[in-house]
Structures are given as structure tokens and as C-alpha cells.
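> @MW can you paste both from yesterday?
MW: sure, first one:
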Amino acid sequence: MPSNPAPSSPISIPTGLTPAPTDVPEQHDDGSIGTPMPGSTLTLDEASRDSAIERGQTVMSLFARRAVDATQWQADLAPYLTPQAAQAYQYVDPANVPPTKITGPVTLTPASTPLVARVSVPTDAGVYLVIMARTDESPTWLADRIMPPEGQGDS
């Protein structure tokens, strides 16, 4: 004979929940920790996609120049880099940069967002990934990182 289930108590649902804090650090894709960005008004429309691709191609064209002296290489590349990237790449010797030219169409990867574009650039040294970033305050795409093909070190 089946038993009757025991009577249950009514469930109380809390009211007046507090919103999630906005100043809690978050981990970014690159492993760094930072404050979450407030909602952005930027979109990833066709014009911003085209701009990211164009600037990613320019960055790689400027990056892949072994014959240029280091001072000129840095001066040419710096306006297209975030301040953090400009600092990171200031000691690069262009003679040691593996790619020398772009070898195919530059594309935007599906993982791109309105604030971070991942630009795939085929070169004679493999497919590089140029990570571009922008903010509402500075909506022009700037390269934050130039990543070599997997397994080939870090640029």
C-alpha cells in the first residue's frame, strides 16, 4: 500500500534581495584581475568590425618588419597599441619577430565582442591573433596583445 507523503511546510522566498556588488574584481581572459566595466554603449556592427579588421591588419603590417631599426619600429607601432601593450613591446627587437608579411585575408573571430576584437592574421610564420580593445571613452580599436600561433611562444 502506498504511503502518503508527509505534509510539507510552505517555502518562504526571500524578498528585498540586494543587488550584486559592482566593485568586486573579475578575472579577464588574459588572467589579469580588474574591476568590471559598467555597461558600454559600443556595438559590434559592420563598421566597427571593419575598423577592427583594418587596424589589426595595420598592426601586424607594422609588427612584421624585421629590417626596421627598433626605435623606428616602436615609434610606428605605438600609436596603434594600448598603453600597456606599448610598454610591453618597447623592448622587442624587430629583427627577432618571426613574421615578415601577411599572407591571406584578415578576419574577425566569432569570439569578438563590442569591447574586445580578436583579429586573425595569416602570416608567413603562421596565423597570429591580434587582440584589439576599446572603451566608451576611447572607442578607437587599439592592439592590446599580438599572439603568435599556438606553440610558438608569446609576442
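MW: second:
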Amino acid sequence: MFHILVDCACVCVWWFNHLSSISSEAINKQPHASING
């Protein structure tokens, strides 16, 4: 049972890193003014 939780945690961490890297790339492509509103 425990290894299932570990696998889920690893997947969540991988997805979080993946999405954050994508969003950071998208933000870098856009002017910084778009972040504020």
C-alpha cells in the first residue's frame, strides 16, 4: 500500500515540475506586464 502512495507522490512531483517549467517558459516569452494583470 505504501509504495502506491510513493508512486503517486512521485507522479505529482513530476507533473508539478513539468507544469511549472511550461508556465515559466510561457511567462518568459510574454512581457512581464501580463503577470500583473
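> thanks! The chain has a mean pLDDT of 81.
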